[in-house]
Description:
Distance between the termini: 124 Å
Number of helices: 5
Radius of gyration: 36 Å
Helix content: 25-40%
Strand content: 15-25%
Oligomer: single chain
Order of helices and strands: HEEHEHEEEEEEEEEEEEEEHH
Low-confidence stretches: 1-13, 284-289
Largest sheet: 8 strands, mixed
Amino acid sequence: MKMKWMLILLLGILAKTTLGWKYHYSKTTMNWIQARQWCQTNYTDMVVIQNQAENDYLVSWLPDRKTTPYYWIGITKKHMNETWTWIGNNSTWIGEQSWAANEPNNNHITEFCVEIYVNTGKNRGKWNDEKCASLKYPVCYEAQCKETSCDRGRCQETIDNITCLCDPGFKGNRCQTAVECPPLSQPDNGYLSCSGENLTFNSTCRFKCYPGFLITCSQDVTCGVTGVWSGPRPSCASYKEALLAVVGCAAFSAFCCICFCWMKRRKRKKLAQVRQPEEATSPSTEAQG
């Protein structure tokens, strides 16, 4: 056990473990580029802060310092007019209380990297833009999200845990369960068959009719992402009922067509009646008279 602690002290590295990830920092100062390379070589990357709660948590863990050098964090930009961007996930979160008073000020034109203050004064936990060539202590994180952390979703690191953001159609703390649709009842004068044993997301059921009956709608329905079956439920109608339905539809269509044609003809006739008086009093007609 003593040998383990001696090794840690010799390396100049300390670490903090949470259920979601591990924070690490070095006791050796480096410029920003070297600090990031060190983080990527030994862990995952330079620390990324996603919200104010994480910012406060990190500051509470890092050792207090009275003066510079402080600690590099993984937010940067390449040009003066660019937006500050977190490395790795391209997040642009910058909280209202993040920067120290009158910062970022870009005093030296090329202050495109950021340090976090861990002093005991009013600026504790605040940020300052700094020249990337300055020497600071790197702060890194070691991701705990693995490829197998979430069955069907994206793993997100949090302070106390990892969170799985599930793909559409899946649920559960690890996105391990497909959304289920309610059972379907057998149609009258027919039957249905479904793909798979469970009626879950993307499952398809096909309705079929017994001989002498016809399907009235699309015969397939699919379980959707919200646990609702797609489309109306098909039913089985006898040939007589189906024929009457077809005849009824045809009669309705014919009636609509007749009404449309009659109204169009009436409108055309009315326009013709309006034009006749106008033509009778036109200038050319009066000149001939």
